[in-house]
Amino acid sequence: MIATVLPGPADLGAWRSAARGLLGAGVPPEQAEWRVAGDAPGLFAGDAAPPAATSPFHVPRAFVALAEIAIRHRDPERFALLYRVLWRLTHGEPALMQVATDADIVRLEAMAKAVRRDAHKMHAFLRFRQVETEAGVRHVAWFEPEHHIEEAEAGFFVRRFAGLRWSIVTPRRTVHWDGQELRFGPGGRRQDVPPDDAVEPLWRAYYAAIFNPARLKPGAMRAEMPRKYWRNMPETAEIPRLIADAPRRAAEMVARGASLPNPNPQKPRHLPPPSHVEPDMDLLDTAADPKEALAALARELAGRNDLPDFARRATQLVFGEGPPGAPLMFVGEQPGDEEDIQGRPFVGPAGRLLDRALAEAEVPRGETYVTNAVKHFKFEPRGKRRLHQSPDAGDIAYYRPFLLREIGIVGPRLLVALGATALRALAGKALPVMKTRGTLVEGPEGLPVFTTVHPSFLLRVPDEEAQRREYARFVDDLRAAHARVA
Ligand code: URA
Fold first, then answer.
1. Which atom of ligand 1 is nearest to 422's Cα?
2. How far is the CA of 353 from the centre of ligand 1 (A)?
3. Domain boundary residue, one of 103, 121, 139
4. The pTM is what?
5. Enclosing domain of residue 421
6. What distance in angstroms lies between residue 340's CA and the mean position of ligand 1's atoms?
7. pLDDT digit string, tens, across residues 394-418
8. Which of 121, 194, 314, 346 could make an S-S bridge to 377, C-beta 3.0–4.6 Å?
9. How far apart, in whole angstroms, are the C-alpha atoms of residue 393 and residue 374?
């Protein structure tokens, strides 16, 4: 037996160089033992020193990509499993990665999936508490990841909260960001993190405000937001009360019917809103054309290495949504704060207003396709807030080829430009919205483009009378667009 001791639990570089040495020396998988420094040796642990790394070997890119994620899994067998797959790839099974039913590949894929889920939960459910220190305010969060994801996910929080000083404490690691430099330390204890702070009531109020009693699905809520995360999330204190109250509130909503939008929607902006919506990777991966074509297009765009800088600061790509073949396709500007968190277009204040107007115009949103000209949230960090920044001509031009391909896959009969950015992307040149409104201009592949205002324009109209008028005009526009394809 040859024992390899790795310096860290998810150190792919160290594993790779050890694996190279073992492979070069012809050590078969069953002769190799793996552990992490500090772990107890196994029962049959050998003490022969691992061979030094020899010349590099070539393996499929798919293996490297999978290994990068799967190595973060907590299963102590992960290193041995990776080495076994590597051995097989280099000993007569070069196409092993394509054998989706192979037991080793199935196991590695399952590990990678669990790690990705864990990362998603960390992004969605980690909550910072504000702490006063001698050096000023610091934000501290406690989180219990299931896998070794702290190092890998630190970059997400740096991009997201670049302007703050924060620490994330987990049982195995601490991660510190001082605005300049990222540092890692040993794990901490839950009691090291304060349980409460001033923004807690805002979280609770925010959660109560976005909770939709008519769409209550306690089973799905529990599956998506397991109870173990609840104690770190202030808003979950509201859940039992909201669930108990849901039937009464839903009945009230039905009785009340549609109402006019609130001109000044208030929501606490001190922290980003929570997300309870996770894209279903399995569904996307197995869906038939053209859904698969849309999913592949989204993956292609998300994986580009020349994305604009602001896209790298966004939480995720927000792609279009709706049934392929929808006759009406709405195109907005770019995802906002809530869209960026949830990964879905038009789910924030402008989206809720669009929903209301669509309902009033008797246009079922589910039968339309809704997307944006720019697919990442462009914002300027201001303390804990993220201020919307309009995309410029270069941003619009960057995403335009993808928008055109998206249109090609969906195949709408009419495109609806919501505001100036969408109109520019669809017409291929800048046109004045107010002059173009209600008319048809030529879009990609000669498709007609119908123009109206962006719903956020309505949210900014100051006086109530003008707001009613503008809202009614917007509903008329939606009705007119719908009539053209009906
Ligand atoms: N504004 C947009 O243009 N798109 C969205 O998805 C949300 C707000």
1. 3
2. 11
3. 121
4. 0.50
5. 281-485
6. 10
7. 999 999 999 999 998 888 999 999 9
8. 314
9. 11
Q: Of 344, 454, 460, which is best to mutate to test ligand 1, by the most ligand atoms within 8 angstroms of its C-beta? A: 454
Q: Which two tokens stand for residue 5?
A: 């001791």
- Same structural domain, 297 and 439: yes
Residues with CB under 6 A from ligand 1: 332-336, 339, 345-346, 348, 350-351, 372, 456
CA 151 vs CA 16, 160, 177, 183, 186: distances in Å: 18, 15, 12, 10, 12
Beta carbons of 418 and 369 less than 8 angstroms apart: no
Q: Give the distance (Å) from ligand 1 centre to CA of residue 456.
A: 8
For tokens 């799905």, the residue is 220
Annotate 30-70 with DSSP letters as a single string: GGEEEEETTSPPPTT---BPPPPP-S-----HHHHHHHHHH
Beta bridge partners of 321: 370
- Quick check: is 261 in a domain? no
φ, ψ (nearest 5 deg) of residue 407: -60, -40
Distances in Å between the Cα of 363 and the Cα atoms of 190, 459, 482 are 50, 21, 7
**467 contacts: CB under 8 Å, gap ≥ 6:** 260, 261, 263, 458, 461
Q: How distant, in Å, are the alpha carbons of 210, 328, 341, 382 from that of 338? A: 11, 24, 5, 16
Count of residues for the chain?
A: 486
Tell me the pLDDT tens digit for each residue of 301-338: 999 989 999 999 999 999 999 998 899 999 999 999 99
CA of 385 to the centre of ligand 1 (A): 17
C-alpha 332 to ligand 1 mean position (Å): 5
Task: For residue 349, say if its preceding peptide bond is cis, omega within 30 degrees of 0.
Answer: no
Q: What gap in Å lies between CA 438 and CA 451, rounded to an integer? A: 6
Do 14 and 160 lie in a common domain? no
For residue 78 the two structure tokens come to 């992960």
- 148 neighbors 171 (Cβ within 8 angstroms): no
Q: Looking at residue 191, what DSSP letter applies?
A: G
Q: Does residue 32 sit in the same domain as residue 106? A: yes
